[in-house]
Structure formats: structure tokens, C-alpha cells
Amino acid sequence: MNNCHTQSKHHVLLLSFFYAITIAAFYLAATSTSTENENLALARTFVCILLLPVLSKYIIQLIALPFYSVKEKFPQTNKQLKSTSTLSVSVIIPAYNEEVGIIKTLKSVLNTHYEYLEIVIVNDGSTDNTHDLVNEFIENEKSDYNAEIKYLKLNNGGKAKALNKALKLASNDIVMTIDGDCLMDKNAITNTVKRFNCETIGAVAGNVIVGNKSKTIEVIQQLEYLCGFFLRRADSVFNSVFIIGGAAAAYRRNVLIEVGDFCTDIVTEDIEMSTRILAAGYKTRYAADAVTFTEGPSNWRCLFDQRLRWKFGRFQTFIKFQNIFFSKNKQHNKYLTWLLLPIAVYAEFILLIEVLVLAVFFTYTFVCNDYLPLVVLITVMATIIMIQICFDSKRHFHKNLFVIAPVAWLMFLTVDIVEFQALYRSLKRLYKKENLQWQKWVRIGL
């Protein structure tokens, strides 16, 4: 109890500090008289040019966002359009030392009450109580649910190998994956499956929400996920969602058979798979109303290691699929190959020099007393976040972020620090030709 009170106190103090800085920026913008400095103005112009490609991508995505709802209400009408009402689903739950949450995860999938459902639990050599808990549930509670449950216990070989073994047991039309620390919303399967209304759709990404939000580090991740997944609506408009995380991923089974097993050499096997499906000419979509709650890391060391794996795995994927960058092949989506992927790599370069970029921006701001650009940035960012909260299918869950929105610009600076360390460590590993293993952290449970 005392620990919770201390965390809450620290969160309030940090939020108050961020608000003080933000209010000061608005006060200075209203009371200061700006001056000219040619050298700094030139430096600021150079920074703006550097940021232009990334800003252009965001502008295109913001313009495309309204079309997501239109596309959802009025799906394409062509000969390939299929009914999804009878599609059967296999949900794979890979688990390694997930005793804290595995039964909650399993029950959340069963409580979707999807009519044509089988569940494949694959235990990747857990050394805790995961095996006993799953066995006990199957023996005592399986009969309470109208779904087939298959259980596979393996020696530890990594998540990708475990998924590939589970695929051999999965027999239904759509294969979904969910991590052993996640909770699936009751409508998640139904809302995911209805996106497979066309044979050319190979995979669908669900909406992942960070479910633990008692600590500052958790709230930062909640905000980050909200913003990141919201922009996938735009990628979905162009049928090019290239990051489909394993916490809430769905694939057409015959597409998985066509493109092959999950890659065991890349630590983000989920991103590699979604990129491979796109490279094969299939479309990918995003289901904003197919919600899965995940447990975000609750300490900085674990968050740093998680983002290292994500960053390193993305670089591995980019290197493997470098041939689709700026591809002229007709089966490759131009939005993906000419915008998303190149800008994703370019954004890493910007992150690498972000300290210099921020130094130029704030030096210009303080020396020239020109706080208007900063205030405009804060206002635009806060407005966009509030719009995102209002349009999210779980807006009530995100209501705490209304208080965070005005100081989100400072929250995202914290995210950039986390991402920068991941970038540095990834580049170092790539240079030294070192690999990376899965990292685990202590689960608290949702």
C-alpha cells in the first residue's frame, strides 16, 4: 500500500513539473518579444529541411485517417468480397514462464465465445508453474467452454520455433496469436475476422492497449501505444500495416502455408512475418475495435531491453527485405515501399542526431525569444492526442490521458531517450555481428 502511495506521489510530482514547464512556455510566448539571428535562423531552416520527410509522412497519415472509417463502413465491392461469418479461428498462445497470467489469458480468449474456435497453447520449456496450471485448467474447467483446447509442451527453443510447432496443430481458416501476458476483449475475434472479407487480405493487426497504468513508466507506454496504433488506421487505408505485433496478430492460414514458417533467425518474428506477407503481394489491415490488453514493462531496465529487441529485430527485417525498398514490382504496395519503409529507416537517422536537432531548436528558441513554434507544437500534439482518445474504441479506459495530453511533448522526449539507447545498442550489435536473444521480465499481471 505504501509503495502504491509513493508511486502515485512521484507521478503527481513529475506531472506537476511537466505542467510548470509547459505553462512557462506559453507565458514566455505571450510576453516575450522575438529577435532576429541570421545564423540561428539558418540553422533552424536546415533542421526543418531535415525533418521534412518525416513530417510529410505524418501529414499524409493524418489526411488518410478519416478515410479509415469510410472504408470500414463501405468496404470494397468486387468479385473477391467474401462472407466472414463462417470463418473458423485458431488462437495460438505461446508461453514461457507465464504462470502469473496464462490462465487469465486463456479465459479471456474463451470468453469471446466465438462459434468456430480452437485454442493451441504451446509451452516453450517453462521452468515455473505454467505447465501445471494449464493442465489443471484443461482437466477441471475445459468442459465449461465450447471450444477445443490443444496443449503442447516443448523444450525451450524460442518463440518462433514454438509458434511453428503450434501451427502444425492449428487447423482453422484464421490463425491468431496472443501473448501469455495479455487479455483479449470479448469482441476481439469477431472484429478481427470481419476484416478478412477479401482473399487478398493476408493479415490483420489488432489494437493493443497497455493495461497497467499505475506508474509513470506505464502511463508513458499507454500514451505511446495509443498514438502509434492510431496511425495504423492510415496504414490500413493503404493496405500496408507492416508492424503486426504477436500480441494481437491474425493471419489467413493458407497465406502462412504459402509464405512459410515464422523466421527463427530474427528476434521480431512477428514483424518479419507481416513484412514477408506484404512482400508476397498480400494486403494487411488494422482492426481498431479488436482490442487486446498487454502488460507493459514496469521498470526502466526491462523497457530498455524490450525496445532493444524491437529495434534490432526491425533492422534485421529491413536488411532481409531491402529489395522491396523503392520497389517497382507491381505486386508491392507503393505506399509501403516508397514511403513507410524508407521513412522508417530515415527516422532512425533523425533519432541518431536528435540531440543536435533539439539543441538547435531550443538554442534558437531561447536566444531569439521565439517561443511560438514550441507553443504551436505543444498545442497541435495535445489536440491530436485528445482526438485519438475520443475516437478510440476504449476511450473510457484512456480518460486518464486527457490530463497527460498537454504535457505529452515532454513524455515523448522520455520515449526518445529509450529509443535512442535501443538504436545505439542495435547499431553496435549489427557492427559487431552479434545476435540477440529474447529478454524476459518479471510479470505482475493484469
UniProtKB/TrEMBL annotation:
Q: Which organism is it from?
A: Thalassotalea psychrophila
* Domain of life of the source: Bacteria
In this chain the Glycosyltransferase 2-like domain maps to 90-259
What are the transmembrane regions?
A: 12-30, 42-68, 335-365, 371-391, 403-424
Q: Which residues form the signal peptide?
A: none
Pfam family membership, one: Glycos_transf_2
Query: What's the protein called, per UniProt?
Result: Glycosyltransferase
Q: Which GO terms describe its molecular function?
A: glycosyltransferase activity
Enzyme Commission number(s) from the entry: 2.4.-.-
| SUPFAM superfamilies named in the record | Nucleotide-diphospho-sugar transferases
Kindly give the Gene3D superfamilies that the UniProt entry links to this protein. Answer: Spore Coat Polysaccharide Biosynthesis Protein SpsA, Chain A
Q: Which UniProt keywords apply?
A: Glycosyltransferase, Membrane, Transferase, Transmembrane, Transmembrane helix
Family named by the database record: Belongs to the glycosyltransferase 2 family.
Sorted alphabetically, which InterPro entries does this protein's record hold? Glyco_trans_2-like, Nucleotide-diphossugar_trans
